[in-house]
Amino acid sequence: MLAGPRQPAPLRRIITAHDSTSGRAIFSNAIGEQVSFTGFPVPPGKPTTSDYALVYNTSTFPVQGLSPPTSATPESKANLDIKHYHSQLLDPSPLNPPNGTSCTIIEVPPGSEVPMHRTATLDYGVVIDGTTELILDSGEKKLLKKGDVFVQRGTAHSWRNMAEKNDISGVLRVFFVFQPIDQVRLEGGKVIGQDLNLSLRQT
């Protein structure tokens, strides 16, 4: 289910590859350039308030299988990252596989908020368009504007769209790279992990 009546337009994503003989860079046509948006599942099972596009993801670190098919690299071992990503598009998740990374674009419509949640990831983020209030479960807040960069280290947070109407119709757009992390441990050995339902337990 998409956020409200708004249907985000697909974005364009370009993938490069290698010419199997010269090694020169070429553009890959293995996957179409258009990437569609779908509802961001936070909290799961509830109506979505934002949308995301899975721009790319990987399942290994370092990334393996970037060689083109040649006599030295059979087709079954070639371009493994592209094949993995292509399979992920059948049932996309905005988050990364256990040993990989995900590149995701999130759009939040005017006046909307992504509910409080925590992912077991380290996130690099850049505000592409609009303005957002990043809210932590401690109550601390920061206003982030277009071009601002943030790093989230497995912490609970929510996003509130504070964009002006004259800024791409008030849409907030954020670029993320999600990466796997070790468990976060607190005093006494308490572990805090992923929780996409934090907003349902807030009082």
Automatic annotation (TrEMBL):
Pfam families: Cupin_2
Residue ranges occupied by any Cupin type-2 domain in the UniProt entry: 105-165
Listed SUPFAM superfamilies: RmlC-like cupins
Protein name: Cupin type-2 domain-containing protein
